[in-house]
Each structure stands twice: as structure tokens, then as C-alpha cells.
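Ops channel
N.P.: pipeline sanity check, posting one input/output pair.
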């Protein structure tokens, strides 16, 4: 069954689409498209700082949170070169790949620590040992909730580690999906930044997920004023475009849209989890806008068959086998997915 209307459930985009308020803000900004967006950029920094309960000099606004990840790596590499120290990046495996990609592109060694067996959680003890055994600067990257597993890490253990870490250990906390978290044990790294001696923490956030602005490329980092000043030296000048800035501002003010966006994801998650339960397919507890679930078969064959039925699902995330990452689209899209998945069971494919 081929279709020209591919349902895209493979890139963790928000298929609800941009808020009407954001679209209108972009349209209205076209008349000043010949101006630099200094005022709009400043307004967005003020808004983001207020939402996070920090000062404006604790915000670094960038073209997608991936730019924040790059600047952290470049800043620390530069710091290591100046001080004559070695520098390494430590990441769980698998996780969001940009930290590894940026590091390897400038010849920074990356240590990948496998997730734990069965639960696929971060192996915090092993990651801590890698950092402790290294004579130099270590950057530890945590995508929390993690991509692709959609799970959160143990807040108490991670918090205790961060608070006791030596000065040569830095923590990059990627909270791209934090707005979706329902587990009451979760605590954002932003709260840790507000405490004394938090100069080794950077939290990055994005407008790509809940706000549905992936194409607008807007993100930000939260850190101590001293850390932000260091990072700002490595960002692109005038890195936020006018459309992205006004769209982000409008979306942040649109409480109805944000509530709808979250409600839609929760409805879709419930639909998929109910179906997976019915089929006896294991899935990890999702705290994000996607689900990491078992298929009991070859992942690539499953991906190909889904595409033949008009649905694009996520890729395989080695070294984990037999699982697939599914983006939570709109409920109407998930209804189609559920129907196709059940048909696969009838054929013995999952």
C-alpha cells in the first residue's frame, strides 16, 4: 500500500504544526525583514530568562540548541589548549549524536559508555569512573529525557554527582524534551544552576519540540553568567533570524497552544502504549514525545515495511537491537500507525 501522503514519525518533529499565533507573528514581521532582529532577540532573551527564573546574562540564545552543544565543546577545547590539558567528551550510548559528531569533527576524543542492560539507563557509575580516571578536562553529556529511549535518569544520583564533581568535570544537560516529563522525581538542571558553585553546568533547551518550531531553528542555553560569557565568544554573531525570534515569542505567550501540544502528545502516547500492551510488545516508559518500543524482528525490514504502508518510523540505534523509536504524531496519525502495526501482527511480522 503506497501513498503520496507519508506520515512522518521518524524525526521527533511536532506534527501539530506551528501555532496560529506564531504564523501570524512571522507574517507581521515581514515588513521589517530588512532590519536586524536586535530588539526581538533581546525580548526573547528576557522572556526565556523570566520563564527559567534566571538573569538575562545566564541565557545564550542560539540557532537551535545544537549550536549550544557545539559552542560548549569548542569553548572547552580552547580552554584545554590554553591550559595545556587534555580534553575528552563522555557520552552514553546510544544517545543524541550531535555531541559526538561535533567533538570528532575537531579531533576531540569521545568515550561512549553503553546503556545498562535491560533497563537501558545511563550507566552513571561507569561514566563517573571514565571521568575520574582521566587526567584532564571531561565533558559529560546527558540527554535527559534521553533520545532514543525517552527515559529519564535518576535525579538524585546525577544531582549528587554534579554537586560533588571536581572543577575539571563539566556537565552538558540536554533537556530538549523536558516539557513532556510527568515523572515527579525529575528535576531540571536549571534548578542546580541557581545554586552556588554551579559553574560547571550547562543546560540546553529547544523550541523545536513542544513549541513545534523545528524549522525556525531557535534554542538556548542556561548557565552561570561566567559560563555564558565564555560560550558567547563561540556563537555566531546575529545568529537568530527575525522569523524564529517572533515565532518563539508568540508561542511562549500562547498558553492554549502549549497546552494543546502537550495534550496531543499525551493522547497519542496513550493510544500507542495501549496497542503495544495488547500486542505484548515491550516499550520503555516514555517521558518524551516519542516511544522506544520492541518489534521482535529485524528493524530495517520493519522500517521498510512501514514506509511501504505510508509511514516513516525511526532508524535503528545500535548497539540496541529489536527496538524502534516512534515519534508521537497527532492522534489521527497514530490511529493509522496502530492499524498498520496490528496488521503486521496478523502477518507475523512483529
Amino acid at each position: 500500500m503506497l501513498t503520496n501522503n507519508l506520515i512522518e514519525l521518524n524525526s521527533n518533529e511536532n506534527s501539530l504544526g506551528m501555532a496560529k499565533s506564531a504564523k501570524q507573528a512571522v507574517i507581521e514581521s515581514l515588513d521589517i525583514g530588512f532590519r536586524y532582529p536586535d530588539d526581538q532577540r533581546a525580548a526573547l532573551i528576557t522572556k526565556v530568562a523570566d520563564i527559567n527564573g534566571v538573569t538575562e546574562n545566564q541565557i545564550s540564545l542560539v540557532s537551535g540548541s545544537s549550536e549550544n552543544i557545539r559552542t560548549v565543546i569548542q569553548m572547552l577545547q580552547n580552554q584545554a589548549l590554553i591550559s595545556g590539558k587534555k580534553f575528552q567528551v563522555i557520552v552514553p550510548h546510544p544517545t543524541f549524536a550531535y555531541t559526538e559528531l561535533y567533538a570528532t569533527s575537531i579531533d576531540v576524543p569521545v568515550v561512549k559508555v553503553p546503556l545498562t542492560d535491560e533497563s537501558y539507563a545511563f550507566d552513571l557509575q561507569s561514566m563517573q569512573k571514565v571521568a575520574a580516571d582521566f587526567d584532564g578536562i571531561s565533558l559529560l553529556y546527558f540527554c535527559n529525557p534521553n533520545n532514543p529511549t525517552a527515559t529519564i535518569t535518576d535525579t538524585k544520583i546525577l544531582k549528587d554527582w554534579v554537586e560533588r564533581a571536581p572543577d575539571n568535570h563539566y556537565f552538558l544537560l540536554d533537556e530538549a524534551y523536558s516539557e513532556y516529563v510527568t515523572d515527579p522525581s525529575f528535576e531540571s538542571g536549571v534548578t542546580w544552576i541557581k545554586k552556588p558553585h554551579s559553574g560547571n553546568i550547562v543546560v540546553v533547551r529547544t523550541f523545536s519540540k513542544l513549541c513545534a518550531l523545528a524549522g525556525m531553528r531557535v534554542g538556548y542555553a542556561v548557565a552561570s553568567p561566567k559560563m555564558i560569557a565564555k560560550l558567547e565568544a563561540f556563537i555566531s554573531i546575529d545568529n537568530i533570524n527575525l522569523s524564529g525570534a517572533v515565532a518563539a515569542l508568540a508561542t511562549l505567550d500562547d498558553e492554549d497552544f502549549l497546552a494543546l501540544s502537550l495534550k496531543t502528545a499525551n493522547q497519542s502516547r496513550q493510544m500507542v502504549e495501549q496497542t503495544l500492551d495488547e500486542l505484548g510488545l515491550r516499550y520503555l516508559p516514555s517521558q518524551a514525545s516519542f516511544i522506544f518500543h520492541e518489534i521482535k524482528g529485524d528493524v530495517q525490514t520493519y522500517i521498510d515495511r512501514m514506509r511501504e504502508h505510508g509511514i516513516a518510523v525511526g532508524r535503528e540505534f545500535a548497539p540496541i537491537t529489536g527496538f524502534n523509536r516512534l515519534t508521537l504524531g497527532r492522534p489521527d496519525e497514530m490511529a493509522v500507525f496502530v492499524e498498520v502495526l496490528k496488521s503486521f501482527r496478523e502477518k507475523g511480522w512483529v
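N.P.: looks fine end to end. The chain has a mean pLDDT of 96.
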